[in-house]
Amino acid sequence: MGESFSFAGTGSSLSVSSFFKIKDPGTIGSGSSVGYGEVYLSKEQEGWDSAVASVTLRETSQGVGLFGGPIPAGGGSFPGFSPYFSGVSILPNHWYELRVDYEHLGSQIGWEVNVNDYGLDGTTFVGNTLNFVDQTPDSIGLLSDSTLYGGFTVSQGGIAFVDNFSIRDDSLTGSTTISVSPTFDAQHRPGNAFPLGNLTEPLLSIDGGFGTSFPALEVLTEFSLGSVPAGAQIQSAQLLLDPDGIVSGTMNLQAFGYGADGLPALTDPAAATTLFGSLSVAAASSDEIAIPLDAAILNGLLAAEESHVGFLLKSATTGPFFAVHASESTTGMAPRLVLTYASETVAGDYNGDGSVDVADYTVWRDGLGTTYTPTDYNTWVVNFGSGATSATAIPEPASFALLALLGGVLAQRRV
């Protein structure tokens, strides 16, 4: 079962976000629309089978818009919002972050939605595309529920790729949970002439083997560790697998890991010598499989400045077998590495990313007079450049003038 969250009380907040790479929708005719991405908070782990508080980014002939609100189980009417934004463009082949900050406002849910452009490579922050703030009645009992889950959905017509889903509980200082997609996943066949298959199989099998007629089958996959900020400590970790059908027999499933580079190589399986975690998977189980991983070993990889972690998934039990969905599957979820980490506390780091930079000035500026004071500005100046390694120089007075001007321009785009 995945990790659950809850609001800590009035004034507390939860943040849910995911990154999406946009397809070219072409010309959108009158009355037509293209859905891009959606993130939500749900009262049940099944997500859309229950009540959700969701926000969808979409585009119609009217322009780019948001569609959201608290939706009861089974659908129906709800107190929602559907604004459109004139002059806003969603660019094909760009990566966008859709982030929703939910705030507990007593009997109301506070919503702040940001869509951020990360360019063609997904790593360079280009700018904020749109910002929207609203509040609605809590018609689904979200604020009082003690087990909330975050999730996302995508439209195959509008999205090419999805990555880096995360949920953050702001009542836990510096604690963030992220879900990382694999850089690759492959079928490993020990002793075979083609041990890594063709890398495009939609289903991957894990089989303990049974004599020469039924050789062992294993799964090899790697994940980037680049989303964990420098100085952060991983508190917990899980490897999630989406099985296809049921497990045949009870299996002792093992995850052996290694420091990796994100690329498949014939030498990778031999490097997987450290047991990161194991799980007894019950016979006839068709539920999502969550293998608990040793956080201390993962922190060791971070300390060694490994960019990726790889896993070789195998059965220690002879006989049982099952298949899991791979990245190429169109009917299930690829393996996901879920990490919860605590960021190093750095004075002046107002956006909690582990470093003090220009982005923190923006947070300070937007919260001046409510959350922050002029003294907090001095703290930011003194600590600029602290935390995660940064090549950004502290802005000179002329640069501050430019920042102030940009702040005025951005403020005009807020709705």
Give your account of this protein's structure.
With 415 residues, this protein is mainly beta. The protein folds into three domains: 13-169, Jelly Rolls; 182-342, Jelly Rolls (Sandwich); 358-413, no CATH class. The chain has five helices and 22 strands. The chain has helices spanning 268-271, 295-303, 358-367, 374-383, 397-413, and strands at residues 13-22, 33-42, 52-60, 63-71, 84-85, 95-105, 108-117, 127-137, 149-154, 159-169, 175-180, 182-188, 203-207, 218-224, 233-241, 243-248, 251-260, 274-281, 289-293, 308-315, 321-325, 336-342. It has a nine-stranded antiparallel sheet. The protein has a five-stranded antiparallel sheet with strand order 5-4-3-2-9, with no helix packed on it. A hairpin with a 2-residue loop joins strand 3 and strand 4. The chain is globular. InterPro entries: EF_Hand_1_Ca_BS (IPR018247). This is PEP-CTERM protein-sorting domain-containing protein.
Structural class: mainly beta
CATH class of the largest domain, named Mainly Beta
Strand order, main sheet: write it out: 8-7-6-1-10-11-22-15-19
- Number of discrete helical segments: 5
